[in-house]
Amino acid sequence: MRELSEIMDARAIESAIAAIAEGIGSNAGFDPKEVAFLGIRRRGIPLAQRIADRIKDRYKVTPPIGELDITLYRDDLSQKADQPIVGVTRVPYSVDGKILVLVDDVIFTGRTVRAALSALSDYGRPRAVWLAVLIDRGWRELPVHPDFVGMKCETRRDQFVEVKFNEIDREERVALMEVE
User: Fold this and answer.
1) What is the count of structural domains for the chain?
2) Residue 106's Cα: distance from chain center in Å?
3) Which has the closest alpha carbon to 114: 94, 140, 81?
4) How many angstroms separate the CA atoms of 131 and 45, rounded?
5) Which of 72, 74, 104, 137 could form a disulfide with 44 if both were Cys (CB 3.0 to 4.6 A apart)?
6) Number of neighbouring beta carbons within 10 Å of residue 173
7) Tens digit of pLDDT for each residue in 137-174?
């Protein structure tokens, strides 16, 4: 892969996270005692933690955070691998009646979110599910749209948005990539 351009640096990422948290906090129906975060494995997890930290700082309530692995719920599982690697799902709270903020780094076709909603149904029935993403790159194939977006980025279908977080990559940036 070849990098075409840097979309966000560390400062821009933090600014986008602050804007997402502000949007969540000002959304109708928001109750800091009833909100919980669920990060989609992999980079949705540190993003969920950072947004939840902002909510905690502002409202003095620590929202619970979970981790969701969607591997077995993907509609392209047979195309991805003969032996899929299943990660940990950790939902240390009851989702019933909660305002659940589903968090992912990038939204593209909407299929990851569809898989996440299917996986989520195994854990209960939240009062509402809100979707927060750092980058919306367009090209939806399903009627799934995020409620909170850090940045919209026009891409071509054959391009790739690469998000790197310090917690996983020891680097903090978002880049637009091209497959060579």
Assistant:
1) 1
2) 7
3) 140
4) 13
5) 104
6) 18
7) 999 999 999 999 999 999 999 999 999 999 999 999 99
Q: In whole angstroms, give the CA distance from residue 6 to residue 163.
A: 10
Query: What is the per-residue pLDDT across 19-29, written as a single tens digit (0 to 9) for each?
Result: 999 999 999 98
Backbone angles phi, psi at 5, to 5 degrees: -165, 155
Q: Please give the residue that has the higher pLDDT: either 79 or 128.
A: 128
Residue labelled with tokens 């194939």: 141
Query: Which CATH number characterizes residue 56's domain?
Result: 3.40.50.2020
**Residue 53 dihedral angles phi and psi, to the nearest 5°:** -60, -40
Instruction: Read off the tokens for 54.
Output: 């902002």
Q: What's the rounded Cα separation, in Å, for the pair 155 and 62?
A: 36
User: Across the chain, what does the average pLDDT equal?
Assistant: 94
Structural domain including 39 reads 2-77+84-178
Residue 77: per-residue pLDDT: 57
CA proximity to 120, closest of 84, 78, 91, 143: 91
Tokens of 155: 């891409």
